[in-house]
């Protein structure tokens, strides 16, 4: 009998020992997990979050030079769609100031409403400059037949130069704060990363980078030597141009525009030479600042929106009706 009691007691002791071991093991594991989680939150993890893993990774350039993004635009069925897409990019980049210039005799309510709806009234200006009749495309003219956006980009340059001069006077003649000008057409596709690169442009420099889907190539890009200097460009279309690159492939430090008031666009140059026309006053290829991972990353694409087929709408208009009556499309 005593032997049986001792046997049962032994089993109880073993059972309790196992339970105790498991209990203390679980407590130890929880402490380790909490410690690891805490280190992720307060140590390296916090640094990683601040370095770009958190929400602010989608809001680059919270601080940086003002980027004046110049967008010529004109009334057409896809205008609002194009500008809406562009506005969503600009909303994500706080140091961009949007300069919209309409090819019209006055500003439109469509653009005004779009800026208001996207909360960009304080980060934009709405201008207008009508293209002279003799430089307007007619009927079925191909879009390359005459230069486009000349009047509008020049109007934007006038406005930017006046603003910079006014700001300089307001600062008592002190050194002008750094800013950059970028010609941002409304039919292209832009990554927010591009503006992080543009913000790196130094005073007195023109920054350059690749552009995708342009000039008959998958990509046009600056060609660099071993020292990282721009030797030329890989353009297949009119490579003899002084600067054979796309309008989306460069941005200009604004001090260069103030120092060279003659730098602007012109109706008098042949097709494809608008970029060269302004850049020839500002820089040479070797002095350009290569960006976007030494011109290895594509962050902007020369996309174009297909012209919508509106045959049914035209038929409706002949009967004195429209499908968008009272609506802004």
UniProtKB/TrEMBL annotation:
Reactions mediated catalytically: 3-O-(beta-D-galactosyl-(1->3)-beta-D-galactosyl-(1->4)-beta-D-xylosyl)-L-seryl-[protein] + UDP-alpha-D-glucuronate = 3-O-(beta-D-GlcA-(1->3)-beta-D-Gal-(1->3)-beta-D-Gal-(1->4)-beta-D-Xyl)-L-seryl-[protein] + UDP + H(+)
SUPFAM superfamilies cross-referenced by the UniProt entry: Nucleotide-diphospho-sugar transferases
Pfam family, one: Glyco_transf_43
Compartments reported by the entry: Golgi apparatus membrane
Residues annotated as binding UDP-alpha-D-glucuronate: 72-74, 103, 148, 153, 185-187, 302-304
Gene3D superfamilies recorded: Spore Coat Polysaccharide Biosynthesis Protein SpsA, Chain A
Site (Interaction with galactose moiety of substrate glycoprotein): 220
An MF annotation (GO) of this entry: metal ion binding
Cofactor: Mn(2+)
Transmembrane segments: 12-28
GO biological process entries: carbohydrate metabolic process; chondroitin sulfate proteoglycan biosynthetic process
E.C. numbers: 2.4.1.135
GO CC entries: Golgi membrane
UniProt KW keywords: Glycoprotein, Golgi apparatus, Manganese, Membrane, Metal-binding, Signal-anchor, Transferase, Transmembrane, Transmembrane helix
Location of the active site: 275
Membrane topology recorded in Swiss-Prot or TrEMBL: Single-pass type II membrane protein
InterPro entries, alphabetized: Glyco_trans_43, Nucleotide-diphossugar_trans
Binding site for Mn(2+): 187
Pathway(s) per entry: Protein modification; protein glycosylation
The family this protein is said to belong to: Belongs to the glycosyltransferase 43 family.
Protein name, as recorded: Galactosylgalactosylxylosylprotein 3-beta-glucuronosyltransferase
């Amino acid at each position: 009998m005593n032997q049986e009691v001792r046997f049962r007691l032994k089993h109880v002791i073993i059972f309790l020992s196992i339970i105790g071991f498991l209990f203390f093991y679980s407590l130890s594991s929880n402490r380790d997990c909490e410690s690891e989680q805490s280190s992720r939150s307060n140590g390296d993890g916090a640094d990683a979050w601040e370095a770009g893993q958190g929400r602010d990774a989608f809001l680059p350039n919270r601080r940086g030079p003002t980027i004046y993004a110049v967008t010529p635009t004109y009334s057409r069925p896809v205008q609002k769609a194009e500008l809406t897409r562009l506005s969503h990019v600009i909303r994500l980049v706080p140091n961009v100031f949007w300069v919209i210039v309409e090819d019209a005799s006055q500003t439109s309510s469509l653009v005004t409403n779009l800026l208001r709806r996207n909360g960009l009234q304080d980060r934009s200006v709405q201008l207008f400059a009508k293209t002279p009749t003799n430089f307007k495309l007619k009927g079925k003219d191909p879009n390359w037949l005459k230069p486009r956006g000349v009047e509008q980009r020049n109007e934007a340059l006038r406005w930017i130069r006046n603003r910079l001069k006014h700001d300089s006077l307001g600062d008592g003649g002190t050194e002008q704060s750094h800013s950059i000008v970028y010609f941002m057409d409304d039919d292209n596709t832009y990554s927010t990363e591009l503006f992080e690169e543009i913000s790196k442009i130094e005073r007195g420099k023109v920054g350059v980078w690749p552009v995708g889907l342009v000039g008959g190539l998958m990509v046009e890009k600056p060609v660099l030597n071993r020292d990282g200097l721009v030797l030329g460009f890989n353009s297949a279309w009119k490579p003899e141009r002084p600067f054979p690159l796309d309008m989306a492939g460069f941005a200009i430090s604004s001090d260069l525009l103030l120092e060279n008031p003659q730098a602007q666009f012109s109706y008098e140059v042949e097709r494809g030479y608008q970029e060269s026309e302004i850049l020839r006053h500002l820089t040479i290829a070797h002095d350009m600042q290569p960006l976007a991972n030494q011109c290895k990353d594509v962050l902007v694409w020369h996309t174009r929106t297909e012209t919508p087929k509106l045959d049914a709408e035209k038929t409706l208009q002949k009967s004195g009706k429209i499908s968008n009556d009272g609506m802004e499309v």
